[in-house]
Write a structure and sequence with these properties.
By secondary structure, the chain is of the alpha/beta class. It binds zinc ion.
Protein backbone atom coordinates (compact mmCIF):
# COMPACT_ATOMS: atom_id res chain seq x y z
CA UNK A 1 0.00 0.00 0.00
CA UNK A 2 2.67 2.43 0.98
CA UNK A 3 6.14 3.02 -0.30
CA UNK A 4 7.19 4.57 2.95
CA UNK A 5 9.17 1.52 3.92
CA UNK A 6 6.54 -0.32 5.88
CA UNK A 7 6.75 1.82 8.98
CA UNK A 8 3.99 0.27 11.06
CA UNK A 9 3.20 3.57 12.71
CA UNK A 10 2.72 5.10 9.34
CA UNK A 11 0.57 2.26 8.15
CA UNK A 12 -1.88 2.62 11.00
CA UNK A 13 -4.30 5.47 10.77
CA UNK A 14 -4.40 5.37 7.01
CA UNK A 15 -8.12 4.72 6.80
CA UNK A 16 -8.62 8.19 5.43
CA UNK A 17 -6.06 7.54 2.76
CA UNK A 18 -7.82 4.39 1.74
CA UNK A 19 -11.15 6.17 1.69
CA UNK A 20 -9.75 8.75 -0.64
CA UNK A 21 -8.22 6.05 -2.76
CA UNK A 22 -11.54 4.36 -3.18
CA UNK A 23 -13.15 7.67 -4.01
CA UNK A 24 -10.64 8.32 -6.67
CA UNK A 25 -11.08 4.84 -8.01
CA UNK A 26 -7.41 4.57 -8.72
CA UNK A 27 -4.61 2.41 -7.47
CA UNK A 28 -2.75 4.15 -4.73
CA UNK A 29 0.64 2.57 -5.24
CA UNK A 30 3.14 5.21 -4.31
CA UNK A 31 0.70 7.40 -2.48
CA UNK A 32 1.86 9.10 0.66
CA UNK A 33 -1.09 11.15 1.75
CA UNK A 34 -0.39 11.86 5.36
CA UNK A 35 -2.54 10.53 8.12
CA UNK A 36 -4.35 13.38 9.83
CA UNK A 37 -3.05 13.91 13.31
CA UNK A 38 0.35 12.55 12.39
CA UNK A 39 1.15 15.19 9.86
CA UNK A 40 2.67 17.87 11.99
CA UNK A 41 6.20 16.62 12.02
CA UNK A 42 6.16 15.50 8.43
CA UNK A 43 7.56 17.50 5.58
CA UNK A 44 5.14 19.66 3.66
CA UNK A 45 6.45 18.54 0.32
CA UNK A 46 4.92 15.09 0.25
CA UNK A 47 4.30 12.92 -2.74
CA UNK A 48 1.07 13.54 -4.53
CA UNK A 49 -1.59 10.91 -5.03
CA UNK A 50 -3.33 9.85 -8.23
CA UNK A 51 -5.81 12.51 -9.21
CA UNK A 52 -3.82 15.38 -7.78
CA UNK A 53 -2.54 16.53 -11.14
CA UNK A 54 -6.00 16.28 -12.68
CA UNK A 55 -7.54 18.54 -10.06
CA UNK A 56 -4.54 20.85 -10.03
CA UNK A 57 -4.94 21.40 -13.75
CA UNK A 58 -8.47 22.57 -13.03
CA UNK A 59 -7.20 24.98 -10.40
CA UNK A 60 -4.57 26.28 -12.82
CA UNK A 61 -7.26 26.71 -15.50
CA UNK A 62 -9.13 28.92 -13.03
CA UNK A 63 -5.93 30.83 -12.35
CA UNK A 64 -5.45 31.45 -16.05
CA UNK A 65 -8.68 33.48 -16.07
CA UNK A 66 -8.14 35.32 -12.78
CA UNK A 67 -7.31 38.94 -11.98
CA UNK A 68 -4.05 37.72 -10.50
CA UNK A 69 -3.11 34.19 -11.60
CA UNK A 70 -4.42 32.22 -8.66
CA UNK A 71 -7.16 29.61 -8.79
CA UNK A 72 -8.60 26.89 -6.59
CA UNK A 73 -11.02 23.98 -6.66
CA UNK A 74 -12.62 22.09 -3.78
CA UNK A 75 -13.02 18.34 -4.23
CA UNK A 76 -15.42 16.16 -2.28
CA UNK A 77 -16.01 12.45 -2.94
CA UNK A 78 -13.83 12.68 -6.01
CA UNK A 79 -15.81 15.50 -7.60
CA UNK A 80 -15.13 19.21 -7.96
CA UNK A 81 -17.88 20.90 -5.96
CA UNK A 82 -16.65 24.50 -5.99
CA UNK A 83 -14.12 26.58 -7.89
CA UNK A 84 -12.71 30.04 -7.46
CA UNK A 85 -10.25 32.38 -9.05
CA UNK A 86 -8.68 35.58 -7.79
CA UNK A 87 -11.14 38.43 -8.25
CA UNK A 88 -9.29 41.00 -6.20
CA UNK A 89 -9.67 43.85 -8.68
CA UNK A 90 -12.81 42.93 -10.61
CA UNK A 91 -14.89 42.73 -7.41
CA UNK A 92 -13.08 45.51 -5.56
CA UNK A 93 -12.25 42.97 -2.85
CA UNK A 94 -8.62 42.35 -1.94
CA UNK A 95 -9.71 39.32 0.08
CA UNK A 96 -11.15 37.63 -3.02
CA UNK A 97 -8.30 35.16 -3.33
CA UNK A 98 -9.03 32.00 -5.28
CA UNK A 99 -9.35 29.88 -2.15
CA UNK A 100 -11.67 32.37 -0.46
CA UNK A 101 -13.88 32.60 -3.53
CA UNK A 102 -14.09 28.81 -3.76
CA UNK A 103 -15.00 28.48 -0.07
CA UNK A 104 -17.65 31.20 -0.33
CA UNK A 105 -19.19 29.49 -3.34
CA UNK A 106 -19.17 26.17 -1.53
CA UNK A 107 -20.99 27.50 1.55
CA UNK A 108 -23.44 29.40 -0.61
CA UNK A 109 -24.61 26.08 -2.02
CA UNK A 110 -23.99 23.51 0.72
CA UNK A 111 -23.81 23.14 4.48
CA UNK A 112 -20.46 24.37 5.74
CA UNK A 113 -20.03 21.13 7.65
CA UNK A 114 -19.53 19.32 4.37
CA UNK A 115 -16.22 21.13 3.94
CA UNK A 116 -14.75 18.82 6.55
CA UNK A 117 -14.31 15.97 4.12
CA UNK A 118 -12.84 17.99 1.30
CA UNK A 119 -9.53 18.60 -0.39
CA UNK A 120 -8.68 22.06 -1.66
CA UNK A 121 -6.39 22.36 -4.68
CA UNK A 122 -4.81 25.73 -5.26
CA UNK A 123 -2.34 26.97 -7.83
CA UNK A 124 -0.47 28.92 -5.16
CA UNK A 125 0.31 27.95 -1.59
CA UNK A 126 -2.41 29.44 0.62
CA UNK A 127 -1.51 32.76 2.20
CA UNK A 128 -2.07 33.17 5.97
CA UNK A 129 -5.55 34.60 5.36
CA UNK A 130 -6.64 31.71 3.18
CA UNK A 131 -4.92 29.11 5.32
CA UNK A 132 -6.71 30.47 8.35
CA UNK A 133 -10.01 30.17 6.52
CA UNK A 134 -9.14 26.64 5.40
CA UNK A 135 -8.44 25.63 9.02
CA UNK A 136 -11.60 27.27 10.35
CA UNK A 137 -13.57 25.38 7.72
CA UNK A 138 -12.11 22.01 8.69
CA UNK A 139 -10.83 21.23 5.21
CA UNK A 140 -8.79 18.04 5.59
CA UNK A 141 -6.23 18.34 2.86
CA UNK A 142 -4.58 21.10 0.88
CA UNK A 143 -2.64 20.53 -2.32
CA UNK A 144 -0.79 23.48 -3.79
CA UNK A 145 1.35 24.04 -6.87
CA UNK A 146 3.76 26.95 -6.38
CA UNK A 147 5.09 27.59 -2.89
CA UNK A 148 4.98 30.97 -1.18
CA UNK A 149 8.73 31.13 -1.57
CA UNK A 150 8.40 30.59 -5.33
CA UNK A 151 5.47 33.00 -5.61
CA UNK A 152 7.45 35.69 -3.82
CA UNK A 153 9.74 35.85 -6.84
CA UNK A 154 6.69 36.92 -8.90
CA UNK A 155 4.36 38.86 -6.61
CA UNK A 156 4.29 40.13 -3.03
CA UNK A 157 3.69 37.48 -0.40
CA UNK A 158 3.32 37.30 3.36
CA UNK A 159 6.28 35.06 4.12
CA UNK A 160 4.58 32.52 6.34
CA UNK A 161 4.11 29.01 5.03
CA UNK A 162 0.80 27.16 5.10
CA UNK A 163 2.44 24.58 7.34
CA UNK A 164 3.48 27.27 9.82
CA UNK A 165 -0.10 28.52 10.00
CA UNK A 166 -1.45 24.98 10.37
CA UNK A 167 1.04 24.17 13.11
CA UNK A 168 -0.19 27.21 15.03
CA UNK A 169 -3.75 25.83 15.06
CA UNK A 170 -3.87 23.03 17.65
CA UNK A 171 -7.57 22.41 16.99
CA UNK A 172 -7.01 21.42 13.39
CA UNK A 173 -5.47 18.47 11.62
CA UNK A 174 -4.69 18.89 7.97
CA UNK A 175 -2.53 17.24 5.38
CA UNK A 176 -0.56 19.51 3.05
CA UNK A 177 1.01 18.51 -0.24
CA UNK A 178 3.05 21.03 -2.20
CA UNK A 179 4.79 21.28 -5.54
CA UNK A 180 2.15 19.66 -7.78
CA UNK A 181 2.55 21.27 -11.24
CA UNK A 182 4.31 24.27 -9.74
CA UNK A 183 6.07 25.12 -13.00
CA UNK A 184 2.75 25.43 -14.81
CA UNK A 185 1.34 27.65 -12.09
CA UNK A 186 4.39 29.90 -12.07
CA UNK A 187 4.35 30.16 -15.85
CA UNK A 188 1.06 32.05 -15.65
CA UNK A 189 2.90 35.02 -14.19
CA UNK A 190 4.91 35.56 -17.34
CA UNK A 191 1.89 35.73 -19.64
ZN1 LIG B 1 -4.87 33.93 0.06
Amino acid sequence: MSKQGGDPNHERGNDRRQTLASLLGAGLAGATLSAPGRARAEATRMASIPGDELFMRMAIAEAAQADFPFGAVIVRDGNVVAAGRNQGTSTNDPTAHGEMVAIRRFVAARPAGELKGTTLYTSGEPCPMCMGAILWCGIRRVVFAASIEELATKIGQIMLTSRAVADAAPFATISITGGVLSAEALALFSK
